[in-house]
Amino acid sequence: MRGLATHPAARGLADDCAVLDLGSESLVLTHDTLVEGIHFLPGQDPADVAWKLVATNLSDLAAKGAEPLGVLLGYQLGTDDPRFVAGLDEVLSHYGVSLLGGDTVGAAGPQVLGLTALGRATHRPVPSRAGSRHGDRIWITGPVGAALLGLEALQAGDGESTAYRRPQALLAQGWALAPFVTAMMDVSDGLLLDASRMALASCVTFAIEQASVPIATPEARRDDALRWGDDYQLLFTLPGNHESPVPANCIGIVHERGPAPLLLDGKPPSGKLGYEH
Amino acid sequence: MRGLATHPAARGLADDCAVLDLGSESLVLTHDTLVEGIHFLPGQDPADVAWKLVATNLSDLAAKGAEPLGVLLGYQLGTDDPRFVAGLDEVLSHYGVSLLGGDTVGAAGPQVLGLTALGRATHRPVPSRAGSRHGDRIWITGPVGAALLGLEALQAGDGESTAYRRPQALLAQGWALAPFVTAMMDVSDGLLLDASRMALASCVTFAIEQASVPIATPEARRDDALRWGDDYQLLFTLPGNHESPVPANCIGIVHERGPAPLLLDGKPPSGKLGYEH
Q1: What is the rounded CA–CA span in Å between residue B222 and residue B211?
Q2: For A236-250, what is each residue's pLDDT tens digit?
């Protein structure tokens, strides 16, 4: 968050979620904005947009091992509001989450949709990006690249696009993992970029073996899959001798901090690592 | 919130704030969106916009007697982001509130800014709009119409515009009032409209005496002052024999529900009561 992140009060903006202790509970809070033409396609089904808006915020809670308490919506009226409401209904029911409040505005220009999700931590300390240690192993809950294929199918008007349109928030996996992980985050902007961020936050170097990363694309597009976002798998580290309590793939190991935060098959990857905001 | 308000999960949208019990605490949550050209003037000082965005949400918390815990910001980049940050810093420092998180997006079109404010109730049950009873007296914490004069001064480029640019959230008043009020809300959309909403929510009729309403405008503009918004005074009802624990003016009494929710000097007011979203 340019400019704002330098503000002493704005430290929370560097991470996806804020954690706030309140009485006997720890609250986990996240806010994301989707903009038409940037985060979703103009003309995309508003029901899918509603799904994505909610699911991506819940995914942030999943990465904190948090149980959702509800969401607040900042809704800019669009071309088919009833269809948005239908999708909102579907995603809220699917995750058993309440719409606690929000507001509606009319405005010209691309549709801007904001959502705040609120959860309670199921385990404390709440996992962050900053706990990976030398000797940990790096894990991911499932393949990357499915959303990339889904977007291409949607743009082509042909083929399976669910992974792009209706991402899943891995809440149950996050709850199961929270007591054991040394660090955790959801992969929203590309595996290489997000892994690099986690390594930087933890002051370590991540060494990832390309071939061990599960991908949803053909092998020829492995590199795209590792740099594409929107899959919302959980990326986490566990002490070296721990197995994952949920199905997951070990994709590398954590070293002491070297010259580069990320090594791919032993070398710093070149080019764009993912989707930079 | 058209469409959404009919959703069973969307009941919270009918009120300004959501209240959520969590452990030993009650959380109070509100989300408001400001749109350039609708809620603030194009070209208005971004520092003032930041102030208003935060203060209006904190005002919602004030009306619930809630103590702010922090805010989350959905920020669409504008023409002078450092100036926005300066105003944000100022308002957060003024109220001692933390920026917990949020995100930044770039988009064409008018600037859309969303803010979620989170607080903890200082008194339970948390005051709502729906508790006014026959025999209560109706109170307001201060004059209406100052923001109207401020807007006019700002548009004219001459005169005192602080009341419009930098509204105050009456947090201390809200905390002091919460244990005693039968209903409370902040006046954001015009006194007559908001009073009518409170009466409807409480299933009663409010009888307001025009002359007893404190106004910041000349007497000739009393009618404007009663219908204009943006002043963020607290409107509340107390049992008939109670005096207000904070400086406030008694402006009327509560009757059993009659044919109209609101009477002004004994008659239902005609015309537009305030700012309808």
Answers
A1: 9
A2: 999 999 999 999 999
